[in-house]
Design goal:
By secondary structure, the chain is an alpha/beta fold. About 50% of the residues lie in helices and about 15% in strands. The chain has one domain: Rossmann fold, CATH 3.40.50.300. The strands form 2 sheets. The protein has a 5-stranded parallel sheet. The protein has a 3-stranded antiparallel sheet with strand order 3-4-5, with helices on one face. Helix 1 crosses helix 9, helix 2 packs across helix 4 and helix 7 packs across helix 8. The structure holds cytidine-5'-diphosphate (2 copies). The site of one cytidine-5'-diphosphate has 15 residues, from helix 1, helix 7 and helix 9. The site of one cytidine-5'-diphosphate (CDP) has 15 residues, from helix 2, helix 4 and helix 8.
Length: about 220
């Protein structure tokens, strides 16, 4: 039987994956998976429960036990709205550290695949096309210059009421990208069959149009 279609959108931090995934899902009437939120939720739970982030199996246990739910783009941990809390940079940085653990990735695998429901799924992260949904009919690897990404993130954080500093963000982003690319488990890399989309000089609308264009040419 034909499998439920998935559009995988992977790429470095602040390349626009979440925004583009949401918009593409809306256009197609599909569901969306923000896989990074699961790593961020695990990081937040680790911080709140005082678990040692250096203890891989303890962190994996937290990941396996996560009590999360998603409603209209809001994220809940044990019923508490943590949509804002998981966006903090300290949570993102810890997420990137614990995402290097194989046992943590394993613990979150089934949870991610459960999002694949009809009529389709748009999933964003680092390994959607390489590990989680290797049979996705469309894989997008979304990139943008680190300077463009730092500016976007800075603006986005300020709009959400967080303080943000461009040079600090740029530094953190370079470190995070390097860690995501060089780790042994599911490193950030384009799948061999991924379409590379550079959004450095594209608006959100233009980027959405590029992705939808790839999808239409695939199904027509
Ligand atoms: O929004 P941003 O791109 O900064 O991060 P995110 O997508 O929310 O993911 C937070 C961290 O989780 C990333 O730095 C990755 O290390 C990790 N992650 C991952 O390893 N695999 C995924 N599929 C998604 C996120
Ligand atoms: O999910 P990811 O970390 O890859 O990025 P995001 O949170 O979707 O996007 C980061 C910020 O860049 C958001 O505020 C977007 O509105 C903005 N953005 C943009 O200005 N131009 C684009 N072509 C894509 C995203």
């Amino acid at each position: 039987p034909a499998r439920i279609p998935v559009i995988a959108i992977d790429g470095p931090t602040a390349s626009g994956k979440g925004t583009i995934a949401m918009r593409v899902a809306q256009a197609l009437g599909w569901s969306v998976l923000d896989s990074g939120a699961l790593y961020r939720l695990t990081a937040l739970a680790v911080l709140e429960q005082g678990v040692d982030p250096a203890d891989e199996s303890a962190v994996a246990e937290v990941a396996g036990r996560l009590d999360v739910s998603f409603h209209n783009g809001d994220v809940f941990l044990r019923g508490r709205d943590v949509t804002q809390a998981i966006r903090e940079e300290r949570v993102g940085n810890l997420a990137s550290r614990i995402a290097a653990y194989g046992a943590v990735r394993e613990a979150l695998l089934g949870r991610q695949r459960a999002f694949r429901v009809a009529p389709g799924l748009v999933a964003d992260g680092r390994d959607m096309g390489t590990v989680v949904f290797p049979d996705a009919p469309l894989k997008i690897f979304l990139v943008a210059d680190v300077e463009a990404r730092a500016k976007r993130r800075c603006k986005q954080l300020k709009e959400k009421g967080f303080s943000a500093n461009l040079s600090g963000l740029l530094e953190d982003m370079r470190l995070r990208d390097e860690r995501d690319r060089s780790r042994a488990n599911a490193p950030l890399v384009a799948a061999p069959d991924a379409k590379i989309v550079d959004s450095s000089n594209l608006s959100i609308d233009e980027t959405v149009a590029v992705v939808l264009g790839h999808w239409s040419s695939l199904v027509s």
